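Work Package 3 committed the consortium to producing structural models of liganded targets before the mid-term review. Because experimental data for this complex are still outstanding, the team generated a predictive model from sequence and the ligand definition alone, so that downstream docking and mutagenesis planning could proceed in parallel. The input record is reproduced below exactly as it was submitted to the modelling pipeline, together with the SMILES string for zinc ion.
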Amino acid sequence: MTAELLLADYVRDSRDRIVGSLVDYLRIPSISSDPEHHTDVWDSATHTVDLMRGAGLENLDVVHVDGLPAAYGEHLGAGPDAPTVLVYGHHDVQPVDPLDQWTSPPFEPTFVDGECRARGAIDDKGQVLYEIEAVRGLLQRDGRLPVNLKFLIEGEEESGSPTFERILTTHRERFACDAVVVSDTGMIAPDVPSICVGMRGLVGFTLSVRVADSDLHSGVFGGAVVNPAHVLARVVADLHDADGRVAIPAFYDDVHEPEPAEAASLAALPFDEAAWRRDGANIRAVGGELGRSILERTTTRPTADVTGIGAGYQGAGLKTIVPAEGTVTVTFRLVPDQDPVAIGRALRTWVAARMPDGMEWSLTPRGGIRPMVTPISTPEMGALSRAIERVWGVAPLFTREGGSGPEESLGRVLAAPVLFLGVGLPGDRIHAPNERMVMDQFWRGLLAAGELFSELGKVES
Ligand SMILES: [Zn+2]
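The resulting structure, written out as tokens with the ligand in place, is given here.
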């Protein structure tokens, strides 16, 4: 840690207080998916507002629209000519079961081997706290901030952000900004800093087919009736061509290659296939699009996957039927600039061409998240790269992650580039027992947030 970093002294002098603050924050069991914990989510929103107040943020509020509350605060002292940055994170957490696999109680933060173990340590309270502390540090140091800052800390990210977009649109003016900083992602390794630049979108469909009102005796009717299981099997088999590409016409029409600098970074990412297979529950067989690396297949390329399929008798022994019906659910991971609605339309036409005459069928959409990417050539991304490089001492690589929704909404509704400053590590056990924050990463995150705000203050808006 070099002394030229803006917040180096602050981190050194305030360490104990900040750790205490982290512990208090992590003690609140703000599990948003469990109604029994909803009062805790409200407490945690209020607590987040208190943390912001302590840091010097103003116009504090607990914001909600028929759902769980987000915490809001701002500091607009940099003036109308300075850029405005909105920091996003979430103060709700995942459930904790299976409880017996925790080595210490999930809401009693415990420090072991340089890590803080608790539910929410990395996802996402720890990451929210270092952003807030960076503000406090900068105000303490300079009495002013290099940018106008707004903090929007959501309370229902871990339960699918059901009302987040409505919160955003309801308060669009209030949240207006020139850039969004999301602190809810990770990097490759402590010594291989990386920046997430985009997230794949997601859209799913359930296809249901029916041939008769009830199952038919296969000895009496079999041979003369179209079998729904066979129909679904054909649809699934046709979904990909021999090269592993999705075979639906127009599926790739809006897919672009990443810009050359990002492609080069992707190729330079350290990737250990054996470790990847092991961490992926001992993957036996690797497949996918011919001519693409595993990293490309899982980040910059779109996919189609059957997530569930069912037809006919699945119990023990033999049941001699032609099943009356069957269903299959297919999900597509989308990349910029694929549109979930256009994909749905193309799929419907393609499925219709595969349905035998007279077969009853329906295609039901299952949610949709648009993909997003922030080009690495944008000035804001340059600011983030410099901030990371200053703190970690090496230039960051660029990655993409799977998306959960709010990031794409933020960029689209607020019409601002989304930057990801995240210090999570692959071993942080997010959503699992013994979730942790590696404290070295926490302090680096705090330092990097200070550098980032300073760098963003120099970007022409
Ligand atoms: Zn999270």
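Reviewers should note the following from the model. The pocket of zinc ion is lined by residues 90, 123-124, 157, 184 (CB under 6 Å). These observations will guide the Year 2 experiments.
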